Amino acid sequence: MTYQVSHYINGQIVEDKSKAQAIYNPxxxxxxxxxxxxxxxxxxxxxxxxxxxFPSWAATTPSRRxxxxxxxxxxxxxxxxxxxxxxTQEHGKTLNDARGSVQRGIDVxxxxxxxxxxLKGSYAEDVATDVDSYSIRQPLGVCVGITxxxxxxxxxxxxxxxxxxxxxxxxxxPSEKDPSCSILLAELAREAGLPEGVLxxxxxxxxAVDALLIHPDVQAISFVGSTPIAESIYKTGTQQGKRVQxxxxxxxxxxxxxxxxxxxAVDALIGAxxxxxxxxxxxxxxxxxxxxxxxxxxVKKMQSRIEKLKIGPGLSADIEMGPxxxxxxxxxxxxxxxxxxxxxxxxxxDGRGFKPxxxxxxxFMGGSLFDHVTASMRIYREEIFGPVLCVVRxxxxxxxxxxxxxxxxGNGTAIFxxxxxxxxxxxxxxxxxxxxxxxxIPVPVAxxxxxxxxxxIFGDIPMHGSDGMHFYTKIKTITQRWPKDKKSAAEFVxxxxx
Length: 498
Ligand code: NAD
Hints:
Number of helices: 16
Helix content: 25-40%
Low-confidence stretches: none
Distance between the termini: 76 Å
CATH class of the largest domain: Alpha Beta
Number of strands: 23
Bound molecules: nicotinamide-adenine-dinucleotide
Largest sheet: 7 strands, mixed
CATH superfamily of the largest domain: Aldehyde Dehydrogenase, Chain A, domain 1
């Protein structure tokens, strides 16, 4: 039995048989459903619903909005298992990992329950005689979120929970590869008391995204996905006069210094490179061994760990790594491993031929490890987004730092060392947005902000934390005087706040 996933507009599922795409279970390779792909008529409907819901939602008090978010948080907690199962079923990652990602999304909902405090603005008394001035933040209107396949619960929650708590209405366009979670999220938000039209979901591909990008009633766009698409979304969206934050891909380096605890570094690298089959924007995909002797030990220890990875369907117990998301993505990752061999890197562990027993038609790949990778190779410069770790050997810390800083991506990075001065210098000088010191995946918590640098971000404002609130609101500053007497005189010079 296969299922249909369609749009959610104005508090209702909207069936759409015009265009559809298959949904796969990556662990079996079977088609398990069909997702509708919206055209511009459907997009118009969703934006119209969000536009008409905006005035009353913006006028709803921040406390009332926060209470609905609190109910939503409770419902998300109650439904964590169901959400996590849907993530695993359509994405492939292990159930525990899926649960963790749902929790990281709930953390953002928890944070936005405090939105009344964040929105309360500032007040300055007596900026001039009898004149006061204050700033308030107001919502933008209809906001759009376009999300990638790798976090089908967490990333939509980064966006719409924040936008809605600020008083905006929202149209979510989730990834067509794992669309089911978006509908459950919208239904839970409705159950929590969110009025119709405040949160809408359009399923779709480029056609839906293009229609959203040029829609005159859309005020702001949040995008997370690959760099070429992020860059083009940013260009088109800003040309259309919209506020845009567009997050792109990554190539995250982990520097291993000679004084690091090797076992800790190897544990960290195994999880950060192969967890979620490397399909994380904060995955470590490059290990930088500082000195050859570090490289030798690291590669030897990593090799034996990679060969023992427990790979299988994400719903099975004790699995460490699931399949890749689609056969197409499998082919892409395999083509990069082929390329690495052609480019002359040493393929120490080759995951291309791996198939688990009983799941030979799933999109499984074993972990792969390249040694002696150089900065000019494409397997080093480009994002692979699979279970492939490249080891680059450098002679000293300065070369390691330069390597990271010369790379076009700047999402996350980590250093393993016992030397405080080296760690501090790294954190201060590295041109990357999120840094881990003896922490392999430094994903900031909900009350901090998440965002990379360089080709990993287009636009200035990162997601969640107070920056998320800034993105989804505009500031208004009011200067007021309530004169005691009626005397007044025209002033022709700029007020200087005497
Ligand atoms: P993707 O760029 O293929 O798709 C992302 C979204 O854009 C999807 O909703 C998709 O439907 C839409 N899309 C795809 N092609 C489009 C086109 N030509 N025009 C308009 N819209 C289009 O990304 P993905 O494969 O779903 O996700 C993986 C990528 O996301 C990786 O590059 C990963 O690094 C990145 N990512 C980045 C972050 C971050 O915070 N920087 C977080 C998660 C994922």
